[in-house]
Please model this.
Amino acid sequence: MRSGTIRGWAFVHKWTSLISTAFLLMLCITGLPLIFHDEIDAALNPEEWQAANPEGPRLTLDEILDIALANRSGEVPVYMSFDTERPVVNVTTAPSATASVSEMHFASFDVTSGDLVPPAAKGETVMDFILRLHTDMFLELPGTLFLGFMGLLLVAAIVSGVVLYAPFMRKLNFGVLRTEQSSRVKWLDYHNLLGIVATGWLLVVGLTGVINTLEAPILDAWRDTALADLIDDLASDEIATATASLDAAVNHARTQAPDMELQFVAFPGTDFSTRRHYAIFFHGASPATERIITPVLVDATSGASSGLRDMPWFVQALSLSRPLHFGDYGGLLLKLIWALLDIATIIILGTGLYLWVAKKQTGSVKSARPVAAKSA
Model:
């Protein structure tokens, strides 16, 4: 590789690293507890609620929906979701199907009794605060997109670092640690070794992080294009009144996705459905496919199915990137590996910053020597 090319890659590596280091350190530090968010939430907020009749019969979805609407007079249902670990159904209502998120009301119901289930925690929890800081720095979409740009800089720093590693190690053995030399040389070797070992993981986490920051634009694109194509020529401009049984609609949808599990229902007129359909979403039943989401559309007035619809590739990529980013695929062992690699990344970022400061200081000393010699 020519010296000019090496200098060009070194320039890219230096400035992409320096610009993003502070924010990447924040993401790594906040990301470490988020890897264990389920375990931390369980420890900080121990489960106290118990179902009224654990062994008793379950209420139907129509009965739960009637109870939810009776508690919110004048409102309409917009979403219904299902707790995977408790006999609980969550119902979101609003003044209208097109109401803003701030106008929506979320409530959970015991399917063995119809009683309201108290929230797991009051107010914002510690993990909620850390998650907001990690995802958007409390700046909402602008903050999210900014962190996505930092993720792109991370990818550029990784690629340029890999390119530079070969010429740097040309006269050295792979993984050598020159601990007997100066502190700067020693930390340079640690920086290079950890960087090249963690390259694959850093690329995965960096790229999935960038995809996650594009969640809002991706979902908007799906609603505005792919979902719009699901509305046939007979669709009315008015939002249909849901008269078909929700239980019957869900049971009919199950026949379209027999090997999948029910995730949530979007009612007519909402962002995730059409003006005339229940959009009934299912996800895969295995750890490898549980993030693959597939909707089935059922006419809300007649109960007739419009068939199973595959999600666009970009929405599937978003669904897969969320758990992969935090190591949620392989249980506690994978989370521990993710945590070790996260700590290694913190060391890489810290040593990179140290090496830059040390080089600046060394350069300052060298430039000052001729001046001191001339004065003498």
About this structure: The beta strands are 76-82, 88-94, 105-110, 116-117, 260-266, 277-284, 293-299, 305-308. The chain has three domains: 3-43+153-202+331-375, 61-117, 215-326.
